[in-house]
Structures are given as C-alpha cells and as structure tokens.
Design brief:
- With 185 residues, the protein is mainly alpha-helical.
- The protein has one domain (7-184).
- 75% of the residues lie in helices and 0% in strands.
- Helix 4 (106-138) runs antiparallel to helix 5 (154-184).
C-alpha cells in the first residue's frame, strides 16, 4: 500500500502550522508590550514577574530603569517583527497568491524579498540586544539569559535573510525568463 501526499495537503498543513505560530507570536509580543507598560506606568513591583519570569529583567529593573526599557524595547521589536513575518506567511495562504502552476510571479518575489528584509531586521535587533546585554554585564548588571529574552540566534536570522534574498533574486530572473518565453511564443 502506497501513501501519496499531495502538494495541496502539504500546503494545508503548512497553513495550519503558520496560523498556530502566528497566534503564538502575537500572544508573546502582546504579553511583552503589556507587561512593559504595566511595569512603567502602573506597578513597578511586578517587574519580578515579567514575561517568562526572567530574573535578569527584575535585577535589570532594579539596576537601572533606562536599561530595562531598552532591553524591553528590543524584545518588543524582535517579537513584533517575528509576528509580522508569520502574518505575511498566513496572508500568502489566505489571499491565494501561491500559484503552483505559475510559480514565477511578482507577488511571490515581493513576498520572499519582504521575508528576507524582516529576517534581517530580526537578526539585526537580536544581535544588538545580545551585544547590549553583554555590555550591561560589563557595567555590573546580572548576566542575561538571551534564550529567555528571545534574543538568541541572530546569526541564524541573518543567514536566513541572505538565503531568502538569493532566492528572491532567482525568482526575479525566473520572472524575466518566463516573460521572455511568453513573448517569443
């Protein structure tokens, strides 16, 4: 007995996974934003129970409010960029822009270039957040757990951005070749 998995089935599974990840990233971004606002404008005493209960942020808040805000802002930017990235993926599926019969189209090329830009932004802000946390350690703050802050993996995001950019350029030349082919017929 042979099991055949079609492209449509794979795309449907990917669409469901994209929705799940998108919702999770929206919850994460919203949680970080809400906790930061509450700490700064309502109850500074809840800093000990920040997002993911990270002890580093509690000590950082006690160390300096400005540095705490800077790290929280970087965390917010990274989490919002991740949510936007998956929003674009979900939008690709829901707008039915993915055409398997004609894969080289401008919409898909723009989609890939946008993913590349967002990935680069995530990598850049993650890198700056990591370097800033390391610098804060030299200034006397407690050492940060970058994984808990969701600022690790900057090199992976930048690597992904480069790969997506190359794929976008291949798509661009594929579109040009496809258009030339249609003109000669």
């Amino acid at each position: 007995m042979e099991i055949k998995i079609t492209t449509k089935q794979i795309l449907k599974v990917l669409q469901i996974l994209s929705w799940i990840i998108f919702i999770g990233l929206c919850i994460e971004a919203g949680g970080i934003v809400v906790n930061t606002v509450i700490i700064f404008f309502r109850k500074p005493s809840v800093a000990f129970n920040f997002w993911d209960e990270t002890a580093y942020l509690t000590d950082l808040y006690q160390f300096d409010h400005g540095h705490f805000f800077a790290i929280a802002l970087i965390m917010i930017i990274v989490s919002v960029l991740k949510a936007i990235l998956f929003y674009l993926i979900v939008k690709l599926f829901t707008d039915k822009q993915l055409n398997i019969t004609r894969p080289f189209n401008i919409e898909l090329k723009n989609f890939i270039i946008n993913l590349s830009s967002l990935s680069f932004g995530i990598g850049l802000f993650s890198y700056f957040g990591m370097k800033y946390s390391v610098w804060l350690t030299t200034q006397g703050a407690q050492k940060a757990d970058l994984k808990a802050l969701h600022l690790s993996g900057a090199d992976v995001w930048i690597f992904m951005a480069i790969i997506l950019f190359v794929i976008g350029q291949v798509m661009k030349s594929g579109i040009e070749m496809q258009n030339e082919n249609e003109l000669t017929i």
